[in-house]
């Protein structure tokens, strides 16, 4: 019995992370999330490879985007994402393992300003460049 080469495992893992990240970004775009940014965390933090931050126009839209994203992750990858904050939906966290998504109402997002905390103060907003 031969074991797969570790480099192959790393490549497969990187491919699955890239696919998950692409799925998240596409789902947010499909659901009209606003001001979506993606912060690469590889080498900066062990919590995930990407942190994605986006806004919805209202609590209702934030909740709908979050629920749809969690369902899509389950359907496409077979893994369940943990979702926190749905009852109020001012700030919803979707933890998909390698990709963590923060969905905010605009005023809550500006209050917590996660982009600044992660050093992405002047990051271009997806879709505006």
UniProtKB/TrEMBL annotation:
It is found in: Cytoplasm. Transmembrane segments: none annotated. The lineage of its organism: Bacteria, Pseudomonadati, Pseudomonadota, Alphaproteobacteria, Sphingomonadales. This is Ribosomal silencing factor RsfS. It comes from the Bacteria. It holds the Pfam family RsfS. Interacts with ribosomal protein uL14 (rplN). Keywords: Cytoplasm, Repressor, Translation regulation. Belongs to the Iojap/RsfS family. The gene is rsfS. HAMAP family: Iojap_RsfS (MF_01477). InterPro entries: Iojap/RsfS/C7orf30 (IPR004394), NT_sf (IPR043519). Functions as a ribosomal silencing factor. Interacts with ribosomal protein uL14 (rplN), blocking formation of intersubunit bridge B8. Prevents association of the 30S and 50S ribosomal subunits and the formation of functional ribosomes, thus repressing translation.
């Amino acid at each position: 019995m031969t074991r797969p080469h570790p480099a192959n495992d790393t490549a497969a893992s990187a491919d699955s992370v890239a696919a998950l990240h692409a799925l998240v970004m596409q789902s947010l775009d499909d659901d009209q999330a606003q001001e979506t940014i993606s912060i690469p965390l590889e080498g900066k933090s062990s919590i995930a490879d990407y942190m994605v931050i986006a806004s919805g126009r209202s609590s209702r839209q934030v909740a709908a985007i979050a629920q749809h994203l969690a369902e899509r992750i389950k359907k496409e990858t077979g893994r369940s994402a943990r979702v926190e904050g749905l009852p109020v939906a001012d700030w919803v966290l979707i933890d998909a393992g390698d990709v963590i998504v923060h969905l905010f109402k605009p005023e809550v997002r500006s209050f917590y300003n996660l982009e600044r905390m992660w050093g992405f103060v002047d990051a271009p907003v997806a879709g505006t460049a």
